[in-house]
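User: Structure with magnesium ion, tokens only please.
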Amino acid sequence: MSRNLVVQKFGGTSLANTQKILNAASRAIQEKQNGNDVVVVVSAMGHTTDLLIKQANELNAAPSAREMDMLLSTGEGVSIALFAMAVESQGFEAISLNAMQIGILTESVHSRARIVNIATQRLEQELDAGKIIVVAGFQGVTEHDEITTLGRGGSDTSAVALAAALNAKRCDIYTDVDGVYTTDPRVVPNASKLESVSYDEMLELAQAGANVLHPRSVEIAKHFGVPMRVRSSFKDDLGTLITGVEDMEINKAVTGVAADLTQARVVVTDIPDKPGSAAKLFSKLAAENVSVDMIIQSYAGETTNDIAFTIDSGDAQRTREIIGDMFGKTEVSDDVAKVSIIGAGMIDRPGIAAAMFETLAGQGINILMISTSEIKISCLVAKSDAQKALKALHEGFELGCDEIAEVKGDLPPC
Ligand code: ADP
Ligand code: ASP
Ligand code: MG
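Assistant:
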């Protein structure tokens, strides 16, 4: 059955206290009064997830991934019940549901599981009964009834996946900024708000470290054609539309810049210079579920090569163990950051990479690695240079405006 359905997602800062939960609940009610069915996806309140991680680490320096998922999923469990109560207190019917109750099936991988299916039967039933459904974001369940989580920021992905499964007409991501900006407005206060941005550019921005959206949410939105908006929980504004439509006339080469501080660089030396060496290294990492980002192979000697690549810094210790003594020496450093420029306008426009390298050189910033895609150029730099690089690139590509962006939430306590 086709219905007028809107999925709304509220992030942690939008639910930081009871007043904010009440405000968010009013937005859900408003949407219902507009004649739409409403599914709300909530994150854990405020900085709950950070605090739970801190508590776990106080007890155990290396907690198991299974128990971490059990722990972290509780944050969203609190939010759903409180949110449903807030809706009911305003005279409307609501029901909270967790991933197990709905059947949000994921792969059997802890801490970064991907959703493989969402059962819609229970959801359809509750919507038919006229209720506002409040779903716990970030969590899933495996075929063996184990609780999983989708990775930090994963509630965005829960929301878009639900919107796709239920054929929603829109997925609104409510957060503490009023849209997607040319870069993080906390770092560059005169960043410009984008009225719209294509799925492809948004995906590259999110993967490059613009944590306003979880990358997988954009991937799913693109695949299923779900129209998405990023908008403020605290003011009435349409925010930024994320859409499949590219601007007919792209007059800027670069749409946005981003920095990712969660990278680590791995350098493996003395790899035999013969067919199969790289395959051996990277298949072993793939088998252990380690994602690799930038890769450089350099000629080192008569019979050997060196390979450098980047991974998520959370995988550093595991990667060291996986590679072990497969080849010569392995060095891992997380004292690095990736800065990227993104823009559909750079296709077929020469000189953009050179302009990026000149801007970094002008700041005395050394480039450790480079990678490119059709609409992105990334440079790995020392972590201490990341902010300077981001600001210089934002200014160099003339992305700023005269206004100062308003960001409501505070930064995490640790
Ligand atoms: P939520 O808790 O609502 O999910 P997040 O903290 O995950 O919120 O995402 C919102 C934050 O994303 C903003 O406060 C901002 O600092 C950050 N951010 C990073 N890059 C961008 C960008 N390009 N545009 C807007 N916000 C960005
Ligand atoms: N609560 C989780 C986190 O802090 C998921 C989310 O907020 O999207 O990462
Ligand atoms: Mg988020």
